[in-house]
Write a sequence for this structure.
């Protein structure tokens, strides 16, 4: 049974594409046939983070409009055979997606993929609604700040009311809350909402906390999903998220302020 | 067309509706011209300069007809530098009298819409079962329990709005807006576990967050003497 997972947030810049890239790579490396779709038509980014921007010939919109076959548009990742990328069109706008077209593409992908990850654009307009409509599960990415949390709250409301599952009275989309750019030091100073604050406001189950990390920007710019940077805390936190998606129970990491080692403190390390 | 029309640059007139402030000068039903003039003298002695050239609408509440001394009353007011421009009146006769004095007629306003209508309330309480919502009400969502009470078993997020013709019970935190008695039911109340909302309102009377009291746990909001009363505790 294929799991269609939308990565969404409402607000822009919180880490949707980073998350889509990381978890799709993580699932593929764990042996699952996975495809990640860029729904941000007109603002194509996922291909850069996945380091395949020079291999895009046909895109999602070409497939929907019948100008190309799905197999021609799918890009196989060079690092992991189990992972394919369906890039967005850079020249079109979000109106180019039709519900029937998207349904047909997802249907075809479901035949030979275990996971379909939908990277949603920001906002709550057509593109974002299209990305979430067919989903079985949703990863709602939130930064620990008030405006991001409120936008996520709005998105969760839409997931519950405007999806295919809601319209057909099927079991609702299963939501997973992912807090990214978390900085325990700033939480301690009171600059940032704590995990507890965010959980209380959104009342959704937490699937992971990604610490603020320089590795994220570096990885994006190099076209390496941060989950492949196994030394970085962000990479390890994403690995935990992937494990939890696969049903493993793992404790949260990197959520407490690290106490500096006494020797390092003495020698100014 | 007049022969000299060419010489005049054409203009168009704009006729627009506007809401401007004006005074309403009410004369009680028991007054006659003499007692009204006396009261005017007293009023001018107190606020004379401030009232000069004030446009005002004349009103005679609780009378079936305008008094026959309306013309004299208008002259007295003009002599006192007030500017009467309209009269509230209902019957056609009164309207003609008003027009003959060069004044506009204005309709007598309906009694306040907030006044409860007992028949309507009784019907509401008897017929409609409460609407029960089990999920959190999310930002941007709006829920309206028409004709009855609203029960919410979770929290109401910031940016969400819940409304009911009857009472609202929120078994979680209120962080958005809650409006009870939206059709004017003044006995409606709002209950919530914690009041962190943006706004609460009963029968159109509202209060914003900055006016909320310190005690915001286990809160009851009610309408008393046209003001919202919020009672709660600080224990949590």
């Amino acid at each position: 049974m294929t799991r269609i997972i939308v990565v969404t947030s409402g607000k822009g810049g919180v880490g949707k594409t980073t998350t889509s890239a990381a978890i799709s790579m993580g699932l593929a490396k764990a042996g699952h046939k996975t495809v990640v779709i860029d729904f941000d038509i007109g603002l194509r980014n996922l291909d850069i983070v996945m380091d395949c921007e020079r291999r895009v010939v046909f895109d999602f919109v070409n497939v929907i409009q019948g100008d190309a076959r799905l197999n021609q548009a799918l890009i196989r990742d060079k690092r992991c055979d189990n992972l394919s990328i369906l890039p967005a069109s850079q020249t079109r706008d979000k109106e180019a997606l039709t519900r029937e077209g998207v349904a047909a593409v997802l249907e075809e992908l479901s035949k030979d993929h275990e996971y379909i990850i939908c990277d949603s654009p920001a906002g709550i307009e057509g593109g974002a609604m299209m990305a979430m409509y067919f989903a079985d599960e949703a990863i709602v990415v939130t930064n620990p700040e008030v405006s991001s949390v409120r936008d996520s709250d709005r998105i969760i409301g839409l997931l519950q009311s405007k999806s295919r599952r809601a319209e057909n009275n099927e079991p609702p989309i299963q939501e997973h809350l992912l807090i990214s750019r978390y900085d325990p030091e700033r939480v301690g100073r009171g600059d940032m909402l704590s995990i507890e604050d965010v959980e209380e406001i959104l009342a959704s189950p937490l699937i992971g906390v990604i610490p603020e990390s320089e590795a994220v920007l570096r990885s994006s710019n190099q076209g390496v999903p941060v989950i492949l940077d196994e030394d970085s805390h962000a990479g390890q936190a994403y690995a935990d998220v992937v494990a939890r998606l696969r049903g493993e129970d793992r404790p949260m990491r990197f959520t407490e302020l690290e106490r500096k080692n006494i020797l390092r403190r003495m020698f100014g390390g | 067309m007049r022969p000299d029309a060419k010489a005049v640059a054409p203009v168009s007139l704009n006729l627009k509706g506007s809401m401007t402030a004006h005074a309403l000068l009410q004369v009680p039903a028991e007054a006659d011209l003499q007692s009204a003039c006396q009261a005017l003298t007293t009023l001018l002695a107190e606020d004379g300069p401030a009232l000069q050239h004030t446009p005002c609408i004349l009103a005679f509440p609780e009378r079936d007809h305008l008094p026959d001394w309306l013309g004299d009353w208008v002259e007295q007011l003009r002599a006192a530098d007030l500017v009467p421009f309209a009269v509230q009146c209902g019957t056609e006769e009164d309207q003609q009298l008003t027009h003959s004095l060069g004044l506009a007629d204005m309709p007598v306003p309906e009694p306040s819409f907030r006044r409860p209508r007992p028949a309507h309330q009784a019907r509401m309480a008897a017929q409609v079962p409460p609407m029960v919502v089990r999920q959190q009400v999310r930002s941007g969502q709006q829920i309206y329990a028409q004709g009855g009470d609203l029960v919410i078993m979770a929290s109401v997020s910031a940016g969400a709005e819940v409304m009911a013709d009857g009472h609202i019970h929120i078994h979680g935190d209120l962080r958005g807006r809650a409006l009870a008695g939206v059709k004017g039911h003044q006995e409606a109340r709002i209950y919530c576990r914690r009041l962190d909302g943006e706004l609460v309102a009963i029968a159109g009377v509202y209060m914003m967050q900055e006016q909320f009291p310190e005690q915001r746990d286990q809160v009851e909001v009610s309408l008393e003497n046209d003001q919202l009363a919020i009672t709660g505790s600080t224990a949590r």
User: Anything to note?
Assistant: Confidence is low (pLDDT under 50) at residues 112-124 of chain B.
